[in-house]
Design a protein that fits this description.
Number of strands of chain B: 4
Radius of gyration of chain A: 19 Å
Number of domains of chain B: 1
Distance between the termini of chain A: 50 Å
Strand order of the largest sheet of chain B: 1-4
Order of helices and strands of chain B: HHHHHHEEEHHHHEHHHH
Oligomer: heterodimer
Helix content of chain A: over 70%
Number of helices of chain A: 11
CATH topology of chain B: ABC transporter involved in vitamin B12 uptake, BtuC
Largest sheet of chain A: 2 strands, antiparallel
Structural class of chain B: mainly alpha
Shape of chain A: globular
Order of helices and strands of chain A: HHHHEEHHHHHHH
Shape of chain B: globular
CATH architecture of chain B: Orthogonal Bundle
CATH class of chain B: Mainly Alpha
Strand order of the largest sheet of chain A: 1-2
Largest sheet of chain B: 2 strands, antiparallel
Largest interface: A-B, 39 and 38 residues
Structural class of chain A: mainly alpha
Radius of gyration of chain B: 21 Å
Number of helices of chain B: 14
Distance between the termini of chain B: 28 Å
Chain lengths: ~290, ~325
C-alpha cells in the first residue's frame, strides 16, 4: 500500500470518524446531564439534513445562512421533544426510556418518509466538490469541510463547558443533580438545554454528512456507529466520544481497504459487543457510571 | 370454576369452528396473528417477566426462518422436524447473545442487542449464496405424508394447536420455579441472589426461551408467507414485537395474546390509512408507554376500581376516601 493511499485513507477515515464523533457527542451530552440515552437521536441527524434541504428548496437563502438557521430550528425541536416526551420519561425505568425514545425517532422517520418518500436528494454546497490534488494525494473538499467543522465544534464545546455559566451548570448537573439544585441551578432547564444542544449537534452532523451520501430517510442509521463510538469512549466522557468516533472511523476505513467490505460492515458491531463484554465502561469512562 | 371451564370450551369451539367461514385473506391475517402471538409470548417472558431489554427479537425470528427453510430445501428435512430444529438453532444463538447480555443491564444491554441485530442483518446480506441476500428466499409450503398444506385453512389447523401448546408451555413455565426466578431478577438482582437464584443462569434461560419462541415463529411465518424477506427482520420488526407486549401488557401472558391480536388486526381495520400505519404503530407505542404502561390488560382492573369507587360514592352521602 503506497503512502498516497494511506494518506487518502487517513483523511477519509478521520472525516468519517468526525461524523461518528459528532453524533456520539449528540448522544453523550444529553445523557450525561439527564441520564436519558436517546435511541432516536439518529432521526435528529436525518431531520437536520431535511430541514436544511427544505430551507434550500423553499427559500432563496444562501448556504451559510441556512446552516445556522437549521441548527436553531433543530435546537427548538430538541426543546420541544424534551418538554413533551422526555420529561415524563426521565424517572421511568430504562426500558421505557429506550423504547420511548426509539418510538419517537421512528415517528420522525416515518413522518419524513410520508412527506419526502424514499427519494435521495442532494443538498447543494457552496464549494466545488472536485478533489484537490496535493502533490499526488487526492483530497475530497467535502471531507476537509467535515473535519474542519468537527474540530471547530469540539473546540467551541470545550470552551463552552469550561467557561460559560450554562456549560458549568451542565457539568454540575451531571455530577450531582441534588447538589446542583442546592446551588440554585434549574436542573429542568439544564436538561432542556442539553437536549437542544444535542439535537443541534446531530443536525450539524446530518448537514455535513449530506454531501457524502445524499439525503434520504435512512441517514439516521449513523446512530448505530455513534453508539459504538460512545461505548468505546465510555459513554460519560466527551473526549472519549470524540476519540471513540475517530478510532471507529479509521478502523472501518482501513479494514475496508485491507480486508473485505463484509469485514468493514461487521467490525463496528463486533467491537461494540467486545467492548461491552470486556470493558463495559469503555476506554475513558468511569466504572461507577450508572444512571441514578 | 365452572364458568371458567365454560369460557375455555367456548373459546376452543370458536377457534375450531370459525376459521372455515373466513375468506383466504382473513385466514392469512389470522395465521399471521397466531405467529405474532408466539413472538409476543417469547419476548414478554424475556422483557416483561425477566426484565431484560431486547431489541433483536426479529433477529431470532430471522434465524429460525432461515434455519427451518434451509433445512427443508437444502437437506430435504421434513418441515415438522425442521421447525423445532430451527427454534433450537435460534435458542442456541440466544445463548450466545446471553453471554455478553447477562453481564449487562439497561442501556448497555439495549446496545448489545442492537449490535446483535445489525450483525445478523449484515450476515444475511453478505452471504447471498446461503440466504439469498437482500433478494430473499422462497419458503416452500409444509407437507405431511406427501400431502401439501396448500390452503391457508389447512395451515391454520396446524399452526393453531402449536400456538396453543406454546402458550400453555409458557403459562406453566411462568408458574414454575424458573418462572418465579424471572420475576425475582426483574424486581431485584441482589434479593434474588440472596435467595440462591443465579441471575446469569436465569438470564440465559430467558434469552434462550425468547429466541426459541421467535425461532419457531420465524419458521411458521416463512411457511405462511411463502417467502423470506430479510427487510422484515430489521429493527422496525423488533420494535413491532415490543409494541405487542407494551400495548397488551408487560409480564402478562394474556397481554401478549391481546397485544399481538389487536395490533395485527388494527392495520387491517385502518386499511384506508395504510401508509400511516407505521407512524400509528410508533405513536401508539409512545402513548401507551407514557399514559398506560400496564397495557390493555391493566385497563381491566383499573376500570373495575373506578366503577367500585363510583358505587361507594353513590351509596354513601359522605364519600369516604378509604379505597385506594
Amino acid at each position: 500500500m503506497s503512502v498516497d493511499i494511506v494518506v487518502q485513507l487517513l483523511i477519509s477515515g478521520i472525516s468519517l470518524g468526525s461524523i461518528y464523533a459528532l453524533v456520539a457527542l449528540a448522544l453523550v451530552i444529553p445523557f450525561k446531564a439527564s441520564g436519558v440515552l436517546n435511541f432516536g437521536q439518529g432521526e435528529m441527524v436525518t431531520l437536520g439534513a431535511y430541514i436544511a434541504l427544505f430551507l434550500s428548496l423553499t427559500t432563496p437563502l444562501p448556504y451559510y445562512v441556512i446552516v445556522p438557521l437549521t441548527l436553531v430550528l433543530a435546537a427548538l425541536v430538541g426543546l420541544l421533544c424534551e418538554r413533551l416526551f422526555i420529561r415524563p420519561l426521565v424517572k421511568t425505568p430504562e426500558f421505557t426510556i429506550v423504547i420511548g425514545t426509539f418510538a419517537l425517532g421512528l415517528m420522525v422517520k416515518f413522518a419524513i418518509r410520508l412527506y419526502w418518500q424514499d427519494n435521495v436528494y442532494a443538498l447543494t454546497v457552496p464549494f466545488s466538490t472536485n478533489p484537490w490534488l496535493l502533490g499526488t494525494v487526492r483530497v475530497n473538499p467535502v471531507f476537509v469541510s467535515i473535519i474542519a467543522c468537527a474540530v471547530l465544534l469540539v473546540g467551541v464545546l470545550a470552551l463552552f463547558f469550561q467557561y460559560t455559566r450554562t456549560g458549568k451548570a451542565m457539568r454540575a448537573v451531571s455530577q450531582s443533580q441534588e447538589a446542583a439544585r442546592l446551588m440554585g441551578i434549574s436542573v429542568e432547564w439544564v436538561f432542556a438545554t442539553t437536549w437542544a444542544l444535542g439535537t443541534a449537534i446531530a443536525a450539524l452532523a446530518g448537514i455535513l454528512f449530506a454531501p457524502v451520501t445524499g439525503i434520504h430517510p435512512e441517514i439516521g442509521n449513523l446512530i448505530l456507529k455513534a453508539f459504538v463510538a460512545a461505548v468505546i469512549g465510555g459513554f460519560n466522557s466527551l473526549p472519549g466520544a470524540v476519540i471513540g468516533g475517530l478510532m471507529l472511523g479509521l478502523v472501518e476505513t482501513f479494514s475496508g481497504a485491507i480486508a473485505s467490505s463484509t469485514f468493514k460492515n461487521v467490525i463496528a458491531f463486533a467491537v461494540l459487543i467486545l467492548v461491552l463484554l470486556v470493558r463495559p465502561h469503555g476506554l475513558f469512562g468511569s466504572a461507577g457510571a450508572r444512571r441514578v | 370454576m365452572r364458568s371458567t371451564r365454560l369460557t375455555w370450551l367456548v373459546l376452543a369451539a370458536l377457534l375450531l369452528a370459525v376459521p372455515p367461514a373466513l375468506g383466504t385473506y382473513e385466514l392469512y391475517v389470522v395465521n399471521i396473528a397466531l405467529v405474532n402471538i408466539v413472538l409476543a409470548i417469547g419476548l414478554n417472558v424475556l422483557t416483561g417477566n425477566a426484565g431484560q431489554i431486547s431489541l433483536c427479537n426479529s433477529s431470532f425470528m430471522a434465524i429460525g426462518a432461515y434455519a427451518c427453510t434451509l433445512l427443508t430445501v437444502r437437506l430435504g428435512l421434513s418441515f415438522w422436524l425442521a421447525l423445532p430444529v430451527g427454534g433450537v438453532v435460534a435458542a442456541a444463538f440466544g445463548c450466545v447473545l446471553a453471554l455478553p447480555a447477562m453481564r449487562l443491564t439497561g442501556f448497555y444491554l439495549a446496545l448489545a442487542t442492537l449490535g446483535f441485530l445489525e450483525i445478523t442483518q449484515i450476515m444475511i446480506e453478505e452471504f447471498p449464496d446461503i440466504t439469498g441476500g437482500i433478494r430473499g428466499m422462497i419458503a416452500p409450503r409444509p407437507t405431511l405424508f406427501g400431502w401439501k398444506f396448500g390452503s391457508d385453512l389447512a395451515l391454520y389447523y396446524i399452526i393453531m394447536p402449536i400456538v396453543v401448546g406454546l402458550a400453555l408451555v409458557a403459562r406453566n413455565l411462568l408458574r414454575s420455579p424458573v418462572g418465579r426466578s424471572f420475576d425475582a431478577i426483574r424486581n431485584s438482582v441482589p434479593a434474588a441472589q440472596s435467595l440462591g437464584i443465579s441471575p446469569e443462569r436465569t438470564k440465559l434461560i430467558a434469552f434462550a426461551i425468547a429466541a426459541l419462541y421467535a425461532g419457531i415463529a420465524g419458521g411458521l411465518g416463512a411457511a405462511i408467507v411463502g417467502f423470506i424477506d430479510p427487510v422484515e427482520y430489521g429493527a422496525g420488526a423488533s420494535l413491532r414485537h415490543i409494541t405487542f407486549i407494551v400495548v397488551g401488557g408487560m409480564g402478562s401472558l394474556l397481554g401478549s395474546i391481546v397485544g399481538a391480536v389487536v395490533l395485527t388486526l388494527l392495520p387491517e381495520l385502518l386499511r384506508g390509512l395504510k401508509e400511516y400505519s407505521d407512524f400509528v404503530y410508533a405513536a401508539l407505542l409512545l402513548a401507551f408507554l407514557i399514559f398506560l404502561p400496564q397495557g390493555l390488560v391493566g385497563l381491566g382492573p383499573k376500570l373495575a376500581r373506578l366503577r367500585r369507587n363510583d358505587r361507594t360514592v353513590g351509596q354513601t352521602l359522605e364519600p369516604e376516601r378509604g379505597t385506594s
